[in-house]
Each structure stands twice: as structure tokens, then as C-alpha cells.
Specification:
two-stranded antiparallel ribbon; NADH Oxidase; 6 strands; 2 domains; alpha+beta; four-stranded antiparallel beta sheet; 7 helices
Length: 256
């Protein structure tokens, strides 16, 4: 049986899918996961759509990058909900890991799709933030998909590079020994925009020391990646984060 970190590391972004439809069993399990999230998490209205290639069909920015993208989860949110981009990334990654456990491939798609062709029901104040493609990985991959995979691989960073400043890392591991595993988990997190902007840091204040995570929020969509990275950290280390850019990853402080 794999450890949580090994499960995270076994996931990779799939851009080429077989034409085979998702099995009824897998659809039911994915819908159950999504329903649980929507029921218990404020502002999230995720929707699973099957057998619909239209959002990426003929779209110039995605042409040749994806093969047979016919199933997806649309990350529908209520835009008035606090921290909703971060929450959406966090719980979309939960669906991704569930799909990985089922043997279903996945890929975050942040902008290379036609939003007007996404077959979802939207109420006032709701919007689609991104898609998560779902399906069975193809044995052969198209040329452009291979190029994209190589580009992502070239961008791969060592786990320690997700901690800043590097001079605080030894101290932080001494205070939080699980940080080593947490950084490995962040390092293998997918990115909705292929930017991997999340950085972990050690915060000192009068209440104690805390491990926190932040992104440059000059691009608000970086907050989606913050949520994805936080989920991986929490999943691998059995911790629970607080919401917010720069907030603690572990739900509290160590006592001095």
C-alpha cells in the first residue's frame, strides 16, 4: 500500500486520453466525491460532465495539446465566497487524487478551453474557474502533448526550492520535522497555469512559529495553485490548513 506522498508522486498530468468512456463505477465514485465537496464546502458547485469534447474542440490555444478530451470536472464557484479561488484549487486536487486512486488520468486546464461551450448550469454570481480533464490515459501520445510534457518536466523544481528564504530551512525542519515530506508533496503538485508559484515560509510572531504558504497574488489565479499546493501538503502530512494567502499550513502555532 502506498503512502500518501507516494500516491501524490504517482500522479502525472495526462493530455492524451483513450476514446473509451468512463465506466459507470468510476463516474459514480467521482460524482460521490464531488457531491461530498459541494455539500460541505461553501461556495463550491463543481460539476462532472462526460462525453463532451466541445470546450476544447478546435480551440486554437489547445489544438494539438490534448487528445480525446471528452470528460471534465468544471470548477464552478460562487464568486462572492471568501478565498474561493484557493478553496477551488484545494478541493479540485482532492478530486484529482481520487481519480488517480481509481486509475483515471487527469489534467488541470486553466485557460486553453472555450468557456462558452462548457456544458454547465450557472446561477447568478457563479462562474467556471477552470476545468479538470478526466479519462483513461492513452498508450500513445501526440507530438504536441509530448512537447508539453517535456516543458513541464524541464520546469520541475527541487523540493527545497519551494521554501523561502533557503537560510531558514534547517531551522524550520527542526521545528516542524514533517516539513521535508510536505515540501516533497508541494513539489509534485500540479498547476492550473503551469507556473508553480507557491512558496512555504516560516513565520515568527508573538504567538509562536508557524509554517505558512503564499503566492504572488498580482495574478489572482495564482490563488488556485496555492490551494492545490496546500492540499498536497496537508494530504501528505496529515495536517489542516487555514485559508488565506500567507496563512498557516498546519491550522495553528507551535508553542514557544
Amino acid at each position: 500500500m502506498m503512502t500518501p506522498l507516494q500516491t501524490l508522486q504517482s500522479r502525472h498530468s495526462v493530455r492524451a486520453f483513450r476514446e473509451e468512456a468512463l465506466s459507470d463505477t468510476h463516474v459514480k465514485k467521482l460524482k460521490a466525491c464531488i457531491t461530498m465537496i459541494n455539500t460541505h464546502q461553501q461556495g463550491l458547485k463543481f460539476q462532472l460532465i462526460t462525453n463532451d469534447p466541445d470546450p476544447l474542440a478546435g480551440f486554437s490555444k489547445s489544438y494539438g495539446v490534448f487528445t480525446n478530451p471528452r470528460n471534465y470536472m468544471a470548477a464552478v464557484v460562487d464568486t462572492a465566497t471568501p478565498d474561493v479561488l484557493e478553496r477551488a484549487g484545494y478541493y479540485a486536487e482532492q478530486v484529482v487524487i481520487k481519480s488517480c486512486e481509481l486509475g483515471v488520468g487527469s489534467c488541470f486546464v486553466g485557460g486553453t478551453y472555450n468557456e462558452s461551450k462548457v456544458k454547465v448550469q450557472l446561477r447568478a454570481g457563479e462562474k467556471v474557474l477552470f476545468l479538470v480533464l478526466l479519462g483513461y490515459p492513452a498508450e500513445k501520445t501526440k507530438f504536441m502533448a509530448k512537447i508539453m510534457a517535456k516543458m513541464v518536466h524541464l520546469k520541475r523544481m527541487d523540493a527545497e526550492q519551494f521554501f523561502e528564504p533557503s537560510g531558514d530551512l534547517t531551522e524550520a525542519i527542526g521545528k516542524f520535522p514533517f516539513l521535508t515530506v510536505g515540501l516533497e508533496a508541494v513539489a509534485c503538485a500540479p498547476s492550473a497555469l503551469n507556473k508553480r508559484p507557491t512558496r512555504i515560509f516560516l513565520r515568527h510572531d508573538s504567538a509562536g512559529d508557524a509554517l505558512c504558504a503564499r503566492v504572488d497574488d498580482s495574478n489572482p489565479k495564482n490563488l488556485i495553485d496555492l490551494g492545490i499546493a496546500k492540499y498536497n501538503f496537508n494530504y501528505a502530512t496529515s495536517t489542516e490548513c487555514e485559508w488565506g494567502n500567507g496563512a498557516p499550513l498546519t491550522g495553528g502555532y507551535t508553542l514557544l
